[in-house]
Amino acid sequence: MNLHIIRFTRRTCLRFQLCRRLHASLLEANPIQAYDARVAQGRLENDPYQRKILSSLSQLHMSLGHYVPPTVATPDVELLKPKTGLSGYFLKLLNREKSGNSAGENSVKGIYLYGDVGCGKTMLMDLFYLTVPKHLPKKRMHFHQFMQNLHKRSHQLKLEHNHMDLDVIPLLASEIAQNSTVLCFDEFQVTDVADAMLLRRLLTLLLSPEYGVILFATSNRAPDDLYLNGIQRVLFIPCIQLIKKQTKVIYLNSPTDYRKVARPVLSVYYCPKPGVKYHSKTNLAACRKHVETWTNYFNQGEGSGPLVENDTLTVWGRQLNVPVSRRPLVAQFTFEELCGQNRSAGDYLTLASAYHGFIIRDIPYLSINVRDKVRRFITFLDAVYDAHGCIATTAAAQFKDLFVEPEDVKADNYQLFKKQSDMGAEETFEDDDLVVKHGFDKLVAKKASMFVNDEEKFAFARALSRLTQMGTTDWLEAPRDLRQ
Ligand SMILES: Nc1ncnc2c1ncn2[C@@H]1O[C@H](COP(=O)(O)OP(=O)(O)OP(=O)(O)O)[C@@H](O)[C@H]1O
User: Fold this and answer.
1) Which pick of 52, 54, 172, 337 has the fewest CB atoms within 10 Å?
2) 123 lines ligand 1 (CB under 6 A)
């Protein structure tokens, strides 16, 4: 194993230097040239579907070359205090919305890129982001993270101005526009009504000519499918129309899920061999060895040292306990410690930014009965994936077999009574959206059916696809800043 580690470290170093050089050269290029460079380096395959989209990216790059963003003033706080229910500032804005946005449109339209999982949307957005002309301030964020920051800042602003009813959205919009003319969101999605209403107002301001922000978003959904079946969706429709008006909507219809393309898989996910009981001495010893091996692997390089017990992180003023860790390299949790309690997306985002490697121990069989834990695990995985973090796990079974019917799980949650009885039942999932629209296996669609909500079903299927990618040598070896 030691040799293995040394080989990884050297290769990682070389690749890191190569990436730095590539990064520097891409700053001057347009997205087509940047793509060509990566193909020539052997880092990307030449994908004809992605190529078709590159010309739109390069057109936007060219328009941005001449773009002079407006000077954005900070709104007068007095105007944002509610006198008539809605702030005067926002009333003006609503009138503009009603009158069909007569105040004009932004001369440069952004891009809304949507398509199936793993087909390269994020990669294309990152290429574009690297090539944004230098005179324009830019920001690239995961959408979850953006919404978290928004809620946090909104709370701070109310405290700062000592007015809890202050209409903070114009202030938020001015801060965003002053700091970033080009705003890139990875995985744009809207799942709850509060976010939907906030976004509608915020984007109306940001994408107006007065604020001049250019939006680049990736999503798994077409704009018309955003927040589908959501509460008070009708109020969100103007936001969809606005996105369609202020961005070029592009569908990336590449049939390749690059995460599924065979690559050597490392054994980051451990589970017992068939017939071996999870709590047997042999298996527990093997689990300990696995945890030790991967802890040592992650705990290398700058910052490495002895592990600390019960370190704490602060999330929104609360303390989050990390049972075993070495900052910023590795953190260790049991599944129960990580997902068994009521944790928020903010907790998982904080963890993902504080540590690079995670060891999640003792993942039991999971069923509809512990849907909340599965939800939290998905949120955690999304956060780690987006931060380009790594995970190693010990579990009752391989991820593809871990999600089962509740009646098949024994009381200890680590053994099954029998093999799944309804082997053929996934046939009924032939017409499922996950299969027809997104190309997932019927078995994945069947397992995702533990969720009622479409967005959650999709997030589950995507998490399985991401776990596959996070178990590859490519993922483990890639420098962490590759996606930033
Ligand atoms: N042309 C390509 N050649 C090789 N690898 C690629 C290519 N396009 C994308 N990839 C790789 O495939 C993986 C998935 O791509 P990416 O994350 O961009 O997909 P995505 O469409 O954003 O997926 P999701 O919707 O799940 O977020 C990444 O590791 C990416 O670097």
Assistant:
1) 52
2) yes
Average pLDDT of the residues in 174-186: 96
Give the mean pLDDT of 295-311: 89
Question: What is the identity of the amino acid at 224?
Answer: D
Between residues 399 and 25, which one has the greater pLDDT? 399
Give the closest residue (by CA) to ligand 1 atom 15: 120
Residue whose entry in the numeric block shows the structure tokens 């027809």: 436
pLDDT of residue 70: 93
Among 122, 140, 261, 458, say which to mutate for ligand 1: greatest number of ligand atoms within 8 Å of CB.
122
CA–CA dist 156, 153 (Å, integer): 5
ipTM: 0.98
Q: In what side-by-side order are the strands of the sheet with 357-363?
A: 269-270, 390-395, 357-363, 330-334, 318-326, 308-315
Residue ranges of alpha helices (H) inside 361-472 are 371-386, 399-402, 433-436, 442-448, 454-470
The secondary structure of 139-162 as a DSSP string is: EEEEHHHHHHHHHHHHHHHHHHTT
Q: In angstroms, what CA-CA distances link 210 with 260, 261, 285, 442, 482? A: 44, 45, 63, 48, 34
Report whether residue 474 contacts ligand 1, using a CB cutoff of 6 Å.
no
Q: Which domains does the chain have, with CATH numbers?
A: 22-252 (3.40.50.300), 269-483 (no CATH)
- Interatomic CA distance for residues 413 and 334, integer angstroms: 14
